[in-house]
Amino acid sequence: MTIRTLLCLLLIPFTGEIMAQELTGKQLLQNAIEYHDPEGQWSTFRGKLKIVMETPKSEDRISEIWIDLPSDIFRLTARKGELTTHYELINGACNLRLNGELEFDLDEAEKAGLTCERATLYRNYYTYLYGLPMKLKDPGTNVDPVVKRMTFKGKEYLVLNVNYDQEVGTDVWRFYFDPTTYAMEVYQFFKGDPEGKGKNTGEYILLDGIEMVEGMKIPKTRAWYYNKGDKYLGTDILQ
Fold first, then answer.
1. Residues 31 and 67 reside in one and the same domain
2. How confident is the model at residue 107 (pLDDT cuts 50, 70, 90)?
3. Number of domains observed in the structure of the chain
4. d(CA 183, CA 180)
């Protein structure tokens, strides 16, 4: 065996490591998008999501969501116990219902969080989280060009650091991808620099399982925890 052949054999186990180190942030993001949305469906997504939210010492919240991105339509009907709230945004126009009724007591509605401001918040929340990692290509999103290798809960990941233009958002995010498949398995946000004053702020979300939705691989469960103290907050389950 020649020295050249021996060197080639020795290098084979490290090829994946070298390639990962050479990935830029944009390349890692593109690889992750190709895993989760191989046919580029997100930008024209029209579909329904049913999500069960489990939280400690509380009844489950069942949400049925209709998202139509091309037509700018968002609908959410949420049921928790005997209370049903309905939010609808169509091209910016807001419609609300409380227990199926268009006319309702305003104080009762405010107590239930039934407001147009909350409708906008829910739209942004669900389209962002369930549109990841594709949403990281939106305007105002700043992807760090340096990809880091970090260990989280005993597993090593390729990590993408993201912040936003001031008018978009102030949180600092980390996204953790499997180094082989590029599947997104964890994300985490901080209220400031995670290496500084923001270290013990914010939350992390553990993703598990995959549901196929309109050709996209969307995480089935999202379990939420505080960064500080690892306190469990709840789990969203996509059905």
1. no
2. confident
3. 2
4. 8
Please name the amino acid found at residue 226: Y
Closest to 33 in 3D by CA, of 24, 41, 22, 45: 41
Evaluate if residue 237 carries a pLDDT over 60: yes
**Domain span including residue 202:** 23-42+139-238
Structure tokens at 238: 């996509």
* CA distances, 127 to each of 63, 120, 153, 170 (Å): 14, 11, 27, 18
Rounded to an integer, the average pLDDT of 173-193 is: 97
Alpha-carbon torsion (230, 233, 238, 239), positive or negative: positive
Are 100 and 54 in the same domain? Answer: yes
Reported pTM: 0.87
| Cα–Cα distance measured from residue 32 to residue 20, given in angstroms and rounded to the nearest whole number | 13
Unique residue bearing structure tokens 């598990």: 208
Express each pLDDT in 14-60 by its tens digit.
333 444 458 999 999 999 999 999 999 999 999 999 999 999 999 99
Instruction: Count other C-beta atoms under 10 Å from residue 9's C-beta.
Output: 10
Residue 12 lies in a domain: no
Q: Is residue 193 part of a domain?
A: yes
